[in-house]
Amino acid sequence: MSQTEPLTLPDYGLGAAGLGNLYFAISDETAYQTLQAAQHNGMTYIDTAPYYGHGLSEQRIGAFLSETSARVMLSTKVGRRLVPAGNAPIPDNGFADPAPFIPQFDYSSAGIRASFEGSQKRLGVEAVDILLLHDIGELTHGEAHETVLRQAFDEALPEMAALKSEGKTRWIGLGVNEIAVCEQVLEQVDLDCVLLAGRYTLLEHEASHSFLDECYRRGVRVIIGGAFNSGLLAAPQGAPLNYDYVAAPGWAVRRVAELRSVCVRHGAPLAAAALQFCRAHPAVASVIPGARSVDEVRQISGWTATRIEPALWAELKERKLISADAPVPA
């Protein structure tokens, strides 16, 4: 990995929380085949984290990397240590049959270094392309937010900058689902990128549009996770409807129904519109939908290649289902 070579991400990468058994378990073989299909379909950037399956996602990616000669771009995250569970119960963080570790927040310098060294071992790599500080923000930490934020400024972000200077990563940034904390950090620290999950989507982007505009002005690259709002924008008929990892509220279900009806009129899958909408903003470097099977990878690849007529975007704006000034695909 050359530190002088510019880092250009593919338009669409792979979010690997599902490879850590998010919601339900998959086999190691299925995970391997999913990663293989992602590479074959141009999704050559993979985002993971120690939190995903308590190390399981990184382990499976590491097993794949050990058997492929393909150039794979990687991002992982720091901010949690994985403590061996021993005889203690493993917490339910939404992962089925996770690895036997307990994730604990740790934004200290030593915690950041230890977290990254654990990722190196599981992934089988010396360096990653992108290193992200995971899950800081008031919605995540509540009353401890100011303490966490101060430690991020004093310890976590400087340690990440040190790892960058050592050639262990090329970009550093945040991996969050809260806009406010991104703005707080960017007021004081120059970041290379932000991975923003679930906040800039076809369903809801009014609050984040100006933030992405500011990122573009400052040269901060944005990676979009959660483009389907926890699957709501891609759920097949009769499937459970989730939003922000819980049952979808009525307003979101109704709005998705309106979005879908417009897409049907123009002959485009709602999921295709959701992905392509996110990628259209000039600040966005990559969109990383999650997949956990070969079929899902192929489906995503098809959605990204679907031709969508300009009239669809025009009608969405006319009906005020998307912002009038939101960038849309050309």
Automatic annotation (TrEMBL):
Name of a matching Pfam family: Aldo_ket_red
SUPFAM superfamilies according to UniProt: NAD(P)-linked oxidoreductase
Tree of life domain: Bacteria
Gene Ontology cellular-component annotations: cytosol
Entry GO MF terms: oxidoreductase activity
Domain NADP-dependent oxidoreductase: from-to ranges: 13-317
The protein's name in its UniProt record: NADP-dependent oxidoreductase domain-containing protein
Record organism: Hyphomonas pacifica
